[in-house]
Amino acid sequence: MKQLHKLGLAIPVGLLLGCGSESGESTASNGTVPAAEAAAPQVAQEQAADCSKNSWIAGSVEWCEGKLTYYDYVYDDYGADRGLISPAPTLLNVLNRGGQLGSPVANNPGLLSPTAGDERYPEGLLNTADLVKLHVENLDGTLRITAELNTLFNPGDAILGVALDLDPGQSNGGGDWGRVDVASEGWDQVHFQDNGDPDSNELVLTIPAPAADNYRLQAVVAQADGTVMNVAFRGIHEGASADGGVNQVLPAAGNWWDDHQAEALGRGDISEFGLTIERQDFEIRRSDDIDLPSGFYQRVYTSDYPLGEGVAIPGVNGRDGGGTFCGQSFNYLGKYQPYGIYVPESAVQPESKPGMMVVMHGCEANHASQINQPNMQQRFGDALNRILVSPLGRGPYGFYTGPSERDVLDVMDDVQDTYPVNPKQVFASGYSMGGYGALHFATHYPDRYAGMVNWVGYTGDLLNIPEFTPVVDELLEQGTELVLRPILGEILGSITTPAEGFANVVDYVGNLRHIPSAHLYAAADELVHVSEALAIAQRLSAADNLEYNFYLHPVAEHLTFLVLDDWRKEALVSAGWVLEENPVNVVYTFDPTFDYPEFDIKHDSAYWISNLVARESTAARVELNSSGCRSLTEEASTELTGGLDPVPWSGTRNEVAEQQGPATSRLTGTLENVGSATIDVDDTCLADMPIYYRIESDGDASITFSDGRTLTLEDGLQEGVL
Fold first, then answer.
1. Other beta carbons within 10 Å of 690
2. Which whole number is the average pLDDT over 360-376?
3. Element (DSSP H or E) covering residue 676
């Protein structure tokens, strides 16, 4: 069955096939070309399978064993620029269907992920003209062109249009394509296919192969009414120019890699987009090795965890049930998922081992936001030799847990499988909702990150506030109570429990024991209130021996850092960060509540401790010190800081000085709600020697060592030799 997500229906494909349009249509300038026939989609799929990639740079072309494949951008199907200011597609689709501003999606103006194109789909047919791949083969004199779409619910949802210029470089031919609303220069034949296969999402067009030695191919995908939404062969340099500044509110600038497409379709002329094919390339079974270029691109990978098909508006709610403003939900459901990437020129030089910085976008933003800004690219990418990576996170409201968390993990794997990333130079960062993501990933996967940068990060609960101190008491006496009490009510002095879908990260800052971090907050922030900033600052200062920089900007609001595109102090402070691989001390708080086994997500390991299991399904904490490799003493020092970039700020820097001592093969620490764990004896240098342990547990627990030894603990303090 083909699942129609928008209608909530499962309709047999046989019934859908009964209501399709004609099998195909072909016309030419002289009207003599035979009609195209619909080939068996499953045959085309088998023939293309051996050469089809699971990830690619969007807009790229590849020859493999005499088969040509164009790999397109994903979720870039917004058609022509009609001169409008187009906010996020999530908002505009709702408004075009009569949505009200009180709806969950329409509450937000959506200007952080605008589209350059202004066309939209009818209700229930979102994303049904989004080209993903275009395969071209010459099979014994027949040209087989297979267009794989991201989404296809019904056979007649989309039209594939193909134009052939049999004498490229000549000025004859061309004009309106006819059945779809586009024109180009020089073409001699135009062909259409409107009968697709919803099982494979493919439209297959077969026509006689041109006899010319070379010819130019163009292709588009349109809605059933002829409105062109997506154009092929745009190259890898498509635009996504709606940065954090004025471009956010200008026509012709988007964040979905559709700028050039939208402009050409707005003019009605796509002559610039096409590919010249040499007939002999099929005959000699041409294959290309593709070099990895530097620059700003979209990459696409194939997910093993699709949520469905197409684009869901409103999105599929997360565990916290969504909400009226930035509630957790997932909009981009399919198996093909895009992400933004900036590759500095230094990263593609021979023998280069670049770092990787994951930049997680905020609510209502997307995978082009922030890393499409010149100073972000220069200060973090070029100057520090880091590849900047921005996952889509399944949409603008994913909060980087569950399906959104899976997306980030898969994007990181794709980058590390594709580029020679230095594993000791991997960083987490993010803005607003993405700041929450950075905090979540750094605290839940601490052994993967050399450092973390958090810009105005949400902490997991809007009501997080600092605990009472004499300073807070004094502020209340001076009148602050008049502001705080009506807003926060009787919860002052406590930190409330988070939503079900994601953890309250202030409870996990101790996990940053070996991850240096920078936290930038705005005192006039209208979304992430200063109370949250002060709460996380207080938790950072209260945790043992954390290395961090906290910056508070009194005159900044939520988008100040994004709009000013500065980033200098946080880039500078992060320059020397390196991954701590096998620390002496491991502190790790975890909670099985926030695992997602259906997406293969478990938070159960840190450094040399793995397979952590909580006795009860609530938060658990392990703090163990192994001196098998070396002993260590630490001394923290704190100083007040201040500066003017990009606006005045004051802050706190905490540094930790380490003094190494001799190895003692001791294992000490505490376990809270920990039922079992595994310790790697090689990483802790405890192999082939007695282990002197002194551990306090609040209940029965067992520790298994990787060499087979087992330590059984009871409630209370226990010590001995294993």
1. 10
2. 94
3. strand 674-679
**3 state SS of 704:** strand
Place of tokens 């005499």: 66
Nearest residue to 207 via CA among 26, 8, 85, 473: 26
Kindly report the number of other CB atoms within 10 A of residue 630's CB atom: 15
Q: Predicted confidence band at 44 (pLDDT cuts at 50, 70, 90)?
A: very low
Tokens of 357: 């910085």
Q: Which two tokens stand for residue 705?
A: 């060592």
Q: Which residues touch 187 (CB under 8 Å, ≥6 apart)? A: 29, 163, 164, 165, 173, 174, 175, 177, 216, 218
Q: Which residue has the tokens 């992060």?
A: 574
CA angle 642, 644, 645 (to 5 degrees): 110
Radius of gyration of the chain (CA): 28
Under a CB-based contact definition with an 8 Å cutoff, are residues 262 and 78 in contact?
A: yes
Q: What is the pLDDT of residues 233-270, one digit of tens each?
A: 999 999 999 876 666 666 778 899 999 999 999 999 99
pLDDT at 13 over 70: no
Characterize the bridge pairing of strands 336-343 and 386-391. antiparallel
Kindly give the residue spans of alpha helices, DSSP state H, lying in 276-330: 279-283
Q: Give me the domains of the chain, ranges plus CATH numbers.
A: 2-52+60-77+126-237+277-290 (2.60.40), 582-626+665-722 (no CATH)
β-pair partners for 341: 297, 389
3 state SS of 266:
helix
Q: Which residues pair with 219 in a beta bridge?
A: 162
User: Are the CB atoms for 211 and 277 separated by under 8 Å?
Assistant: no
Please, which residues have CB within 8 angstroms of residue 538's CB and are 6 or more apart in sequence?
466, 467, 469
The predicted model scores a pTM of 0.88
Identify the DSSP state of 646. S
Q: One-letter amino acid identity for 481?
A: E
190-214: average pLDDT: 97
pLDDT digits (tens, 9 = 90+) for 266-288: 999 999 999 999 999 999 999 99
d(CA 219, CA 217): 7
Amino acid letter, residue 1: M
| Averaged pLDDT score across all residues of the chain | 86
Mean pLDDT lowest among 113-117, 279-283, 585-589: 113-117
* C-alpha to C-alpha distances, 321 to 198, 397, 434, nearest whole angstrom: 31, 12, 19
The pLDDT tens digits for 215-232 are: 999 999 999 999 999 999
Residues 6+ apart with CB under 8 A from 316: 307, 308, 329, 330, 331, 333
Strands 674-679 and 609-614: antiparallel
Sign of the dihedral through C-alpha 183, 189, 190, 196? negative
* 242 vs 259: CA distance, rounded Å: 9
Query: What CA–CA distance (Å, rounded) separates 546 from 515?
Result: 8
Asked if residue 662 has pLDDT above 80, the reply is yes
